[in-house]
Structures are given as C-alpha cells and as structure tokens.
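User: Sequence recovery, please. Input:
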C-alpha cells in the first residue's frame, strides 16, 4: 500500500470513529512490552514519555492532578475557570514541586514567630523554611523544619530563632553542586534538606531536598523542564483578558499555553494568535478546538505549535446534540493530520471510552490524547467524593466547561454572568464512578498502549505512528455490526 500522496481523506475514515475499527496484528519484535518506548511530541518543542494529557477542565486538571500526571510522564493544562491570580498561584505551586533544586525556597527571618512559620509552611505545603538574618537580607543563618515545629509545640508567639537549627550546626553547600554530591552530603550528615548559599556572604540561592531526589530516582520518566521542575501547561481564552492572563502565566514560568475556545477555525482565533505572537514571539502555544482538515491547516499557518482536535465527542459536551455541528472523532483526527501533513503535533480531545481508543487515535494521526471523563473519577480530580443515593456508589461530578454549573463558577471576563446564562448551554454535568488513583489509570493505559505497539511489530510508539499514519488502510479493518459485537461485547 503506497502512502497517500495527495493528503486527501481516505474513504475508510468517512463517518468513522473508534469502535468502527480493529487493526491487523503484525510480526512482533519485542521480547517484553515493558521495553516499548511511548515518547511522543506534545507540541513542536516539548516531548512527553506517556502521551496522555489532562483536560483543561475544572473537574479534571488542577494542582493535584497536574502533579500526578507529570510524575507519571504525562502532561496537563490547568483550566481558566478562575481568576488570573488563582491560576498563576497554581503554576507557581507546581513549579516548586519535586525540582532538583528549589530556586526560590520559602524564607523567613529569625524574628518571625512560630505561628507565622506554621502558616507559611501550610500555605506553601513545605516541611521546612530557610531562615535569614533580617527580613529581606537573604543571608542564611539557619533552617526551621517540621521537627523544630514539634519542639516548639504551642509556643506560637516565640521567635523561630529560638528553635531553628543555627548556622554552627547547619550543613549547607554552594550552588552548582551536582545532584550526586548533594545526595552524598545529605546521606553522610543524615539530613533531609541541603540549603544552597553563595560564599562569602552566605546569600541564599536555593534548596535541595532528599524527598525530591528520591522522586527523581523512582520516576525517571517524569515530565520535567531543564531545571528538573515539573512541566506545567495553562489555559487562556481568545478575548478580553487573554493577553493579561498569558503574560502572568508566562511570568510564573508556565511551559506551554493552550488557547482554547469551542470553535477555533475562526476570525476570533486568528486575531488572538497574531496578538499573542506579537507579544510573546516563539513561546510554546497550543490552539483548539477544530475538527476539519481546513481548520487544522488554518491554525498551522497561523504558527501554533500544536493543534487540539475535537468538536463535541466528549461526555460533558452537548454541542452535537444541540447544534448538529461536529465530525466523528477518528475522522476529525485523520483530517487534522492530513491538513498539517504531519508537520505539527495533534492532541486528540474527547470521545475516548477505553484504552484501545487511545491507541487508534495515535496510530491514525494524533501525537497525544487528552482525557477528561476517564480521569474525572479519580482521587486527584477536583471535587468532593459523594455517595449516589440511588446506586449507593461513590461518585464525583464531571462537567463540560460550557455547562451552567461551570459558567456560574467561572470568573468575570469575556461576558457578563447574565449574558453567559442567556446563551444556551452546550455542556452538561454528569456523575462519574469513583475509580481510585489516577496513577493506576495511567499505569493501565501505559501497559495497554505498549501492548498495542508490540502487536504492530515495532519497539516505539513514534515508529508505529509514522508507519500507520502513512498508510492506515494497510492496517485498519472496518467492522461490520457482527464483527463489532464479536470484538466489543462481553
């Protein structure tokens, strides 16, 4: 089967989605599926080792989910259904988590009280504070940890200088120390935290913790930046405060911005992307959503770094039901791939019901897959775990971002609350079963995806993506009603 030279949609994809296909197994070459490499491009300049992206929804991806996904080699985009300050705070929090070197550790002066230290430690979710000589001096004189907090007990009014580990007993190092030497030093002195300070003035310049070094060893596939910090994505709109929001997120060191609206093949997005590029030049920008070949080419020509594909396939979306607009998701993925001729990555957003859908999405043209509903019932998803009075099952609430509930909770911005409520909803809130930790979900998906790659006769997902996308009709089998029942009904 020759590659498609005209970049035209193959007939097999017309009106098709995930349950319409199986792929024909090829000769296997891997001894164990665990050896299969799943690394894929998230965008033009960012790669991730497990091609799963947390949906930018307020019931899916916030701090807890983002952290868990990044540690498992995945990625996520923080939602924008909050104030700029709240979103920026989440980015800053995540950039402090599990880095090789904490460049801006929490610092108090020796004259701050134990009560103030408790508050700071709780707000920043840290177990220790570096202590400076006077407020703003930056001169290291000690460290105050959770052990000192226990020793202080209820003595909240006392100064932390009374309980901290003083300079004479403090083990510290200069910036530039290797991670290996830092670990040896901490093991030798049986300490959990190693402050970094410049000689001769002992100016505070960072902190290394044994906890972060352990995580780095346990999860070498984590999604991190060059400084060993978690990679963080965040969402903006395309009107009103989007430039102000993007500027604040970039200043907070977000690694990638997602410009997200329901219909991105539009003049609104064209104007917004051009304004973004004029202000932020080559900063990594993902844009969506579209569902056609022309829409994908339109965004690529605007200079975005990845495209998010899907109009109405998700459980929380009613766009197809209410408007009739949309393209079957696997067809949309294929159209987008052909529209950009494989030149920039595609994020397939929505319609994923099970793990084989993820494999088919990537084989047919997507680089990564965005999950919402599949992650929304996990411990890490925002929202309270409740018991459904009818079924007695534990459930969480999952909602589309244009549902009335999400609109009500959103910040002031593009439209007034009255205007938003006067616009008919294209999203809905639903109950989803509680499924435990997202880590277990990702491990399961990773294993099934590795198996799918092995059935395709390759050692890497990228190689399957290239071969399959080049000639999908060589591998795909379009199912009949009977073969669909045989395959998927159990």
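Assistant: Recovered sequence (490 residues):
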């Amino acid at each position: 089967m020759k590659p498609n030279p005209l970049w035209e949609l193959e007939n097999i994809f017309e009106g098709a989605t995930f349950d319409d296909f199986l792929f024909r197994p090829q000769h296997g070459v891997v001894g164990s599926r665990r050896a299969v490499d799943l690394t894929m491009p998230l965008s033009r300049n960012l790669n991730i080792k497990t091609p799963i992206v947390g949906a930018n929804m307020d019931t899916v991806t916030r701090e807890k989910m983002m952290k868990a996904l990044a540690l498992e080699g995945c990625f996520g985009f923080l939602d924008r259904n909050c104030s700029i300050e709240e979103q920026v705070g989440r980015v800053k929090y995540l950039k402090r988590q599990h880095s090789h070197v904490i460049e801006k550790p929490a610092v108090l002066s020796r004259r701050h009280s134990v009560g103030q230290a408790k508050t700071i430690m709780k707000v920043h979710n840290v177990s220790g504070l570096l202590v400076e000589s006077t407020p703003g001096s930056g001169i290291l004189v000690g460290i105050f940890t959770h052990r000192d907090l226990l020793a202080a007990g209820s003595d909240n009014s006392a100064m932390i200088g009374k309980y901290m580990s003083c300079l004479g007993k403090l083990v510290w190092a200069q910036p530039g120390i290797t991670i290996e030497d830092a670990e040896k030093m901490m093991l030798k002195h049986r300490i959990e935290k190693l402050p970094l300070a410049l000689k001769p003035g002992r100016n505070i310049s960072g902190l290394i913790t044994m906890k972060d070094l352990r995580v780095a060893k346990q999860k070498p596939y984590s999604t991190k930046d060059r400084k060993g910090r978690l990679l963080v994505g965040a969402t903006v709109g395309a009107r009103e405060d989007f430039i102000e929001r993007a500027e604040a997120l970039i200043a907070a060191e977000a690694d990638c911005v997602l410009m997200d609206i329901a219909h991105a093949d539009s003049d609104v997005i064209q104007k917004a992307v051009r304004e973004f590029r004029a202000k932020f030049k080559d900063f990594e920008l993902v844009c969506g959503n579209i569902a056609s070949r022309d829409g994908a080419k339109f965004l690529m020509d605007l200079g975005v770094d990845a495209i998010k594909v899907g109009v109405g396939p998700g459980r929380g979306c009613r766009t197809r039901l209410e408007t009739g607009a949309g393209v079957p998701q696997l067809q949309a993925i294929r159209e987008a791939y052909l529209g950009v001729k494989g030149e920039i990555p595609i994020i397939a957003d929505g319609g994923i019901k099970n793990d084989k859908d993820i494999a088919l999405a990537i084989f047919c043209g997507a680089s990564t897959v965005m999950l919402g509903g599949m992650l929304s019932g996990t411990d890490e998803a925002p929202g309270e775990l409740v018991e459904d009075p009818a079924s007695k099952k534990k459930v969480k609430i999952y909602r589309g971002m244009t549902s009335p509930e999400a609109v009500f909770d959103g910040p002031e911005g593009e439209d007034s609350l009255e205007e938003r409520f006067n616009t008919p909803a294209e999203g809905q809130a639903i109950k989803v079963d509680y499924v435990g930790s997202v880590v277990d979900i990702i491990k399961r998906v990773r294993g099934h995806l590795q198996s799918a790659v092995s059935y395709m006769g390759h050692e890497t997902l990228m190689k399957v993506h290239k071969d399959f996308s080049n000639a999908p009709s060589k591998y795909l089998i379009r199912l009949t009603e009977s073969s669909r029942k045989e395959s998927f009904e159990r």
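The first strand starts at residue 21 and ends at 23.
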